[in-house]
Amino acid sequence: MPLIHQERPLLDKLGVRPGARISVLGIGDPAFVRALVERGADVSARRRKGSDVLFVAISRREDLGTMATLEPWMTRNGAAWIVFPRGVASIRDTDVIGAGVAAGLVDNKVVRFSETHTALRFVIPLARR
């Protein structure tokens, strides 16, 4: 009997838990926001102090400076997911990783966010938590 590969749901891959305080910035996908709410997350379209998870859409290399402003909004053990277009020359994963490192964050996971976008997770280094 062949094994059936079942893909984990996106919100599981992203670590979204019921009750999580989430800020969604620039992601214009109502279905994604609806899924977060249905999961039981406390969702806002604004930056909020004490966010367990931030989802930040970045579409151009010029917008990567935004990453330097994220840490004050995150809980110490929280995460910032940077969502960016896949397979375009205007912004690459190495650009996003470099901006995160320059902002003092550590990248530790990558997820296929959609058919067109990738998400990289950044956290505060253990030494500063």
Using only CA atoms, what is the Rg? 15 Å
Count every beta strand, where a strand is a DSSP E run of 2 or more residues: 6
Q: What spatial form do the alpha-carbon principal axes imply? A: globular
Question: How far apart, in Å, are the first and last alpha carbons?
Answer: 48 Å
Sheet with the most strands? Answer: 6 strands, mixed
Approximate strand percentage? 25-35%
Spans where pLDDT lies below 50 across 5 or more residues: none
Q: What level of helicity do the residues show?
A: 10-25%
State mean pLDDT (0 to 100 scale).
94
Strands ordered across the widest β-sheet: 2-1-3-4-6-5
Structural class: alpha/beta
Order of helices and strands: HEHEEEHEE
Q: Helix segment count?
A: 3
Report on the structure:
This protein has a six-stranded mixed beta sheet, with helices on both faces. The longest helix has 10 residues, at 93-102. It has three helices and six strands, in the order αβαβββαββ. It has helices at 10-13, 30-38, 93-102, and strands at 21-25, 42-44, 51-57, 74-85, 106-112, 117-123. It is of the alpha/beta class. It starts with 9 loop residues before the first helix and ends in a 6-residue tail after the last strand.
Key terms:
single chain, 129 residues, alpha/beta, six-stranded mixed sheet, 6 strands, 32% strand, globular
In brief:
With 129 residues, the protein is of the alpha/beta class. The mean pLDDT is 94.
